[in-house]
Structures are given as C-alpha cells and as structure tokens.
Amino acid sequence: MEPISPKIRHYDTLCAQLESLLAGERDTVANLANAAAVLYHGLPDLNWAGFYLVKEGELVLGPFQGHVACVRIPFDRGVCGAAVREDRVQRVADVHAFPGHIACDCASNAEIVLPLHCQGQVAAVMDIDSPIPDRFDEEDQSGLERCARIVEAACGWVGL
Ligand code: SME
C-alpha cells in the first residue's frame, strides 16, 4: 500500500478542524467566515482565501481573509465566473495565462476556485489564491474538494 502523503494528512487535519468548527451552526456568513480563516491560516503560501456568493445572477464578495477584493463578478468573467458557468473546479497554474482572469491582488500567480452547492445549484464559490506559480496540485484539489463539501453541507444558505 502507498504511504499517505504529508499533504493529504494535513488536509485530514484541516477537514477535522472544519467539521468541528462548523458543527451545529447553520448561519452561512458565520460558517464561511470561520472556514476562510481555517483555510487562510492553515495552508502555506496563500495571499487570499474566501468566498463569493451567487446573488441575483452575479457573484458578490463574501467572507474572506487577505487584501481587499473586487465586490462583484459577472458569471462571464474571471476564474470565479468560469467555476459557476461550468460548475467545475478551476485549478489555474498561471493566472496571467487565464483569459478573463480578474487581478484583485497583483501578488496572485496561481488560483483554485471550487463551486459550492445548495440543492444542486451553485450557491457560492470558494476561491484561494497564491503568489507561488503552480501552487495547487491534484492533492490540493482533492483536499480542497473535501473542505468544500464540509462547508457546503454546514451552511443553511437561506436569508443571504
Ligand atoms: N481572481 C478572481 C477574482 C477574485 S480574487 O482572486 C479574490 C477571478 O479571476 O475570478
């Protein structure tokens, strides 16, 4: 059997932390705020971690950690918009080569965006940026997909 990589073990810890922190709380903003803090402080080499919420046909900035960010993103723009349109994780090794990438923080070089769902519909995206080119590999993607499922299930998604 293959030994479990240190990175996967680290995501095990982050997931356990998210599970216990969000357990018993349904408030979406509170849960997204704590999840942003867990991710930003729990993963190395990030410059932004947070959420954009689907509101009236566009993405609107939600809880995050990092520098100030653009508030509204149309679905036809950016890495975040692509994640909503395709309802698929966008793992971008070099944001400067991504057509339509929105540079909120010029320190960002790599980005991963994961859709979160409520009743089968995309309700938000989890957006994580890094100054390190090609920062997110397949293990990061599967670890962050696990984190996204925990956050998505914990949130009530009502009254936003
Ligand atoms: N880069 C994102 C915009 C959001 S910031 O990274 C926080 C995009 O292209 O959608």
Detail the topology: elements first, then pairings.
Layout: H1 6-22, H2 28-42, E1 48-55, E2 58-66, E3 72-74, H3 78-86, E4 90-92, E5 110-118, E6 121-130, H4 138-154
Antiparallel strand pairs: 1-2, 1-6, 2-3, 4-5, 5-6
Helix pairs in contact: 1-2, 1-4
Bound molecules: methionine sulfoxide (SME).
Question: What percent strand?
Answer: 25-35%
Q: Can you tell me the overall shape?
A: globular
How would you classify the helix and strand content by structural class? Answer: alpha+beta
Main sheet summary: 6 strands, antiparallel
Cα separation of the termini = 46 Å
Mean pLDDT: 96
The rounded Rg comes to 15 Å
Bound molecules: methionine sulfoxide
Helix content: 25-40%
Number of helices: 4
How do the SSEs run, as a string of H and E? HHEEEHEEEH
Strand order within the widest beta sheet: 3-2-1-6-5-4
Secondary structure tally: strands: 6
Low-pLDDT sequence parts: none
Structure commentary:
The protein is α+β, with helices and mostly antiparallel strands. The protein is 36% helix and 26% strand. The protein is built from 4 helices and 6 strands; from the N terminus they run H-H-E-E-E-H-E-E-E-H. The chain has helices at residues 6-22, 28-42, 78-86, 138-154; strands spanning 48-55, 58-66, 72-74, 90-92, 110-118, 121-130. Strands 3-2-1-6-5-4 form a 6-stranded antiparallel sheet, sandwiched between helices. A hairpin with a 2-residue loop joins strand 1 (48-55) and strand 2 (58-66). Helix 1 packs antiparallel against helix 2 and helix 1 runs parallel beside helix 4. The chain is globular, with a radius of gyration of 15 Å. The termini are far apart.
